[in-house]
Design goal:
This protein is mainly β and 162 residues long. It has a single domain, classed as L,D-transpeptidase catalytic domain-like, CATH 2.40.440. Helices cover 9% and strands 35% of the residues. Strands 1, 2, 3, 4, 5, 6, 7, 8, 9 and 10 form a ten-stranded mixed β-sheet that branches. A hairpin with a 5-residue loop joins strand 2 and strand 3. The longest helix has 10 residues, at 142-151. It is globular.
């Protein structure tokens, strides 16, 4: 596992990256779940607790690359593309797929973050940051998630707090 760590603060709507020495090296404004914090499958809430980046998806894809089922669709987000799919939950640019580390809290059974497809991912730049609007994931600006993706390996710890 990497000595780097990520902390997501739900109340502040921020994601902070801490280096190997424990110093904060990046801080981003994010958007977590509109429904608040929670771990249960189907709740559309952002799960709390200790997680790990289990997979990194989208290396080399363009900013705004659209993903479905963790695969690049070949589409790059634009207002015109979005107009044709007004209800689509856009997963853009990069995906950092999270897996819970706490059995009964965010791992296994009805509270498994990985089975819930909880990601840190990009979202259209037209979406506000600093406001909880996602359906469970941690949304970031496309440039921010691309930068973070390049800094963190699989195995990076992610602590999500209220």
């Amino acid at each position: 596992m990497s000595a780097m760590q990520i902390r997501v603060d739900i109340s502040a709507q921020t994601l902070s990256l801490f280096g190997d020495d424990g110093a904060c090296i990046r801080r981003y404004t994010v958007s977590t779940a509109r429904n608040g914090a929670g771990e249960e499958k189907g709740s559309y809430r952002t799960p709390r607790g200790r997680h790990v980046i289990r997979a990194r998806i989208g290396a080399g894809a363009p900013l705004g690359a659209a993903f479905r089922g963790r695969r690049f669709t070949g589409e790059v987000w634009s207002p015109e593309l979005a107009a044709g799919a007004p209800q689509r939950d856009w997963i853009l640019t990069r995906i950092l797929w999270l897996s819970g580390l706490e059995p009964g809290r965010n791992r296994l059974g009805k509270v498994d973050s990985m089975q819930r497809y909880i990601y840190i991912h990009g979202t259209p730049d037209s979406e506000p940051m600093g406001v909880p609007l996602s359906i469970g994931c941690v949304r970031m600006r496309n440039r921010d998630v691309a930068e973070l993706f390049d800094l963190v390996p699989v195995g990076t710890l992610v602590d999500i707090r209220e």
